[in-house]
Structures are given as C-alpha cells and as structure tokens.
User: Fold this.
Amino acid sequence: MRTKANIHTLSGHTNTVASVQCQAVEPQVMTGSHDCTIRLWDLVAGKSRVTLTQHKKSVRALLIHPRLYMFASGAPDNIKQWKCPDGKYIQNLQGHTAIVNCLGINADNVLVSGGDNGTLFFWDWRTGYNFQRLQAPVQPGSIDSEAGIFACMFDQSGSRLLTAEADKTVKIFKEDETATEETHPINWKPEIIKRRRF
Assistant:
C-alpha cells in the first residue's frame, strides 16, 4: 500500500462495477456489476474464473455468509443465493418491488435487504421465507423520494440493524422485545414439492 503500486487490474465487466466482496478462501474476490453479471475472480491469473449470468438486471449488492460457504446477490429482479466456490445457484428470494441496494446478515441467519424505496425485507436464509417487511420512516423535512436505503449491516450483537439512507440519516433498528407469536404471527409452512412420476 505504501508504494501505491497497482498489482492487478481485473477487467471483464462491460459496465459499472457496483459491489465487491472479499473472503479468505477461493474465490477470494467476487464482484457484481450493472452488466447484470457476477464474476468470481482468480487473483493469481488476474482474470475471472466464473461468470454468473442468471440476473436479468444490474447486480448492486453482494453478501458473503459469515459461516456457510455461500453468498447472496441483490438486484431489481430478485435476490439470489449461491454456493461457493463455483457459484452454484441455490434459490431466488422474491418480493421486493424496488432496486435492492444492500444486503446484511446476522448470526441467527436473518438476511436483510434494503431497497431504493425505503423498504427493508427480513428473510430466513435457509428457507428463503420473507417473515417481515418494514418501511423506513423518512426524516422530517425530507421528501418521499429520499426514502432509499443504500447500506445496511447488523452490529456485533446481531440484534440491532444500522441503515444508511438517502434522507441523510443513519438509522438504528432493534428487536421488538414485546413481540410474541400472537402479536406477530408467522403463518407459514414450507411448500411441498410434488414430484411427477414418469
């Protein structure tokens, strides 16, 4: 870093690179771009190892799971989950009606996604079930179009969520300690996949 020497220029995306994530194991670097692709990079060779093309719109958010060898990507079409090292597709998380700008996760496998319209969606990582939705309140004096959420992350306890928003604020959300099954019911059962016999 002291020499400011450029070691690698990883080229291959054909549009703006909007997100980058790094992990200790291969592939070490993952990037998401407005060219609708995700690239997993081979740093020794200095070129992309895998290009994932399943998104139909620009990929603005990437998130590496802290314990599982998996990652997620967020785009206006949906959120997708992938398995490392080769980006094997796992599942779609659908429901957002806005551009997904950011993703965050805590130790309880709660995945949160923040949208351009100020919405926060909370998902169960394993099943992909969307168990809660919030509309972030706009700062008094701001206009409704300033409701976008551009970054989010959980604190070290995993119980508080911090968001960086277009209304020039950082908001902190905490768990509702009074919530019960009666006040916040989760009426959900996993879908039973019927297999056809041939």
